[in-house]
Design brief:
Elements (H helix, E strand, L loop, with lengths): L8 E4 L5 H12 L3 E6 L2 H11 L6 E5 L5 H11 L8 E4 L15 H26 L5 E6 L12 H20 L5 E7 L6 H6 L15 H6 L10 E4 H6 L1 H4 L1
Parallel strand pairs: 1-2, 1-4, 2-3, 4-5, 5-6, 6-7
Helix pairs in contact: 3-4, 4-5
Amino acid sequence: MSLDLKGMNILITGASNGIGRQAALTYGKHNANIIALGRSQSALETLDDDLAKYNCNVSLIPFNLMQFDLIKDMEQKLSERIDRLDVLFLNAAAFGSLSPVTHITEEEWNETFAVNLTSNIIFLKLFEPYLKKTNQSQVLISTSEIINQKKPFWGLYSASKAALEQIAYSYAKEIQNTNIKVNLIDPGTVNTKLRLKAYPGEDKQKITQPSDLSDFFEDILFNDKFTNGELIRYADWLGSSKGVN
C-alpha cells in the first residue's frame, strides 16, 4: 500500500509490546515520527533498534499510565518538540485478573480503570489541541470483542473496555464537525502478553500474530471508507475484498 506519513507525528500508548509495537513498526516504516509510550524501558529500546532501519524519528517515553500527574508533565515536555499531532493511538491496556465479581479487589479495580479508561480521557483532553492543528487527524482506540460475550470472570476487564467504548462514541459525536476522526478498533484474538495471562495454555500459532495486523493498520489510517465513530473489526476487514487482495 502506498502510504506516506513523512513528517506526521503519531503517538502510540502501549507501544513496547504486542499490538502497539506493531503499530509503531508499521507507521515508522512509512516515515512517520513515532512517539512511543510503554512501561518497559528495555522493550522500548528494542523497538527503537527495529525502527532504526526506517527513515523516521523516534521518541521513547517509558511511562506508567496510572501516574496521571505525569501525563500532563509529559505533554508539556512534548510541546517543546511538536506543535501538532496527526494520530493518537490509545492502545495500552491493563488486564487485572480473571475473578468472580465479588472477588475483585479495590486495587485491581482502580488500576484497571485507571489504565483502560481514565488515562485515555486525560490523553484526549490534553492532546485535542494538537490534533486540531492539522488538516485531518485521527484517534484510534483499541477495544475488545470480550465486552459482548458476557463471559464469567471477565467482568472487570469487560467493564473497563465497555466504558471506554462509550467514551469513544460520545467523543466522536462531540467532535464530528472538526478535523478529527475517532474510531474504535478491534484487532480480535491476537498473540499478546495480555492474551497470555488469560489463556496461558493456548496454541499461540493458531491465532493472529501482531505482525499480521500491519496491512490493517495501514488501511485504516486516513481512509475515507471509514467514517467517524465507527468500530472497525480486523475480522471484518480481513473478510472484505480489500482485506483479501
